[in-house]
Amino acid sequence: MIDIYSLTRAELCDLTVSLGEKSYRGKQVFKWLYGGAESFDDMTDLPKAFREKLKETCRMTLPQIARKQVSKDGTVKYAFRLYDGEVIESVVMSYHHGNTICVSTQAGCNMGCAFCASTVGGKTRDLMAGEILGQIVSAQKDMGLRIGNVVLMGMGEPLDNLEQVLRFMAIANDEECLHIGYRHFTLSTCGLCDQLKKLAEENLPINLSVSVHSPFNEERSKMMPVNKKYPLEKLVESLCAYQQKTGRRISVEYALIQGKNDSVAHARALMKLFSPLSYHVNVIPVNQAREGFVKSKKQAVAAFLECFTERGIPATARRELGSDISAACGQLKHEVKQTELQ
Ligand code: SAH
């Protein structure tokens, strides 16, 4: 079965032709998919025989809401059940500049970061483009609003599923789909350098965030196993190449852990390491997700930020949204199939 939400408009037109229909019928189908149709039978201006053929060849399944939680700050977390029973999570946040969704790109994650809940139990599978897109479509439908910004910061490592992630952004960008401009996507990576090179070749005007969390290899390797394969020097080198190609400023993500990586010496070393780059720092006091990681004190957060701002490097602390419903960074969990479903 073809996952119809994973097809670009052009591919849908090709499929339509291969099913013996005129290409423009494909455009009609595409429009219906993102115009509220829930089944092929809703596509009332298509010949019945064509609808039947589509049913035989394609699966038209959006992620189903298995659970929905609303935080006291208004943040909404969804557990979505996919066609095969796999459950993933997404978070919708409302800011003054509009609504942002944090989508998952994999069911679970293989990266093994010590502070992150999403990686416990590893990765079950990659999501298809249509399943990443479907998180937005389903959330918009449920909330009755438009989502204008997408952060690929849910479960999974986007660069470990690059092909589907690129496909997802291309489809979501289509004016007949969600029409979300590339500048409204933020892709976050733990630093898969080889894949970063491939992303650079695409030369997309998306925002790139990189999870750093320590400027010292030994310490970073303990927290983030990916550092053993791609140590910091290699990461910075890849980011430089990325920046040269795309001309985009990079965002450095840094989770502050009390007494571990929140010293002024860490800030200075980070600044030195990233000196060849144009970047801004986005810190977040580490969220409770795994044992042994305690949030930095307010004072330490302020002192860390100050090290950058006094040198004219933009540095901000991320708003902590949704922690009462475990919807904050690092708290999204990979649940075992079919559990806790309503
Ligand atoms: N795999 C990608 C996408 C995940 S984005 C990546 O690593 O970047 C999620 C962000 O939240 C990453 O920056 C991640 O390092 C961070 N994070 C994970 N666990 C966290 C925690 N407990 N507290 C704060 N941030 C955390």
Q: What's the shape?
A: elongated
Q: Name the poorly predicted regions.
A: none
**How many strands?**
14
Count of alpha and pi helical runs: 11
In whole angstroms, the N-to-C terminal distance is 27 Å
Q: Which percent range describes the beta-strand content?
A: 15-25%
Protein model, in words:
The chain is an alpha/beta fold. It contains 11 helices and 14 strands. It has a 10-stranded mixed sheet, covered by helices on one side. Strands 1-2 form a two-stranded parallel sheet. Helix 4 packs across helix 5. The protein is elongated. 44% of the residues are buried. The mean pLDDT is 95. The structure holds S-adenosyl-L-homocysteine (SAH). S-adenosyl-L-homocysteine (SAH) is lined by residues 111, 113, 115-116, 153, 157, 188-190, 211, 253, 255, 284, 286-287, 289, 329-330. The site of S-adenosyl-L-homocysteine has 18 residues, from strand 10 and strand 12.
Descriptors:
10-stranded mixed sheet, binds S-adenosyl-L-homocysteine, single chain, elongated, about 350 residues, 14 strands, alpha/beta, two-stranded parallel ribbon, 11 helices
Quick overview:
The chain has 342 residues and is α/β, with parallel strands linked by helices.
Topology:
Blueprint: E1 2-3, H1 9-18, H2 23-33, H3 48-57, E2 58-59, E3 64-70, E4 76-81, E5 87-95, E6 98-102, E7 106-108, E8 123-126, H4 129-143, E9 149-152, H5 162-173, E10 185-189, H6 193-202, E11 207-211, H7 217-223, H8 226-229, H9 232-246, E12 250-256, H10 264-273, E13 279-285, H11 298-309, E14 315-317
Parallel strand pairs: 1-2, 6-9, 9-10, 10-11, 11-12, 12-13, 13-14
Antiparallel strand pairs: 3-4, 4-5, 5-6, 7-8
Helix pairs in contact: 1-2, 4-5, 6-9, 10-11
S-adenosyl-L-homocysteine binds next to strand 10 and strand 12.
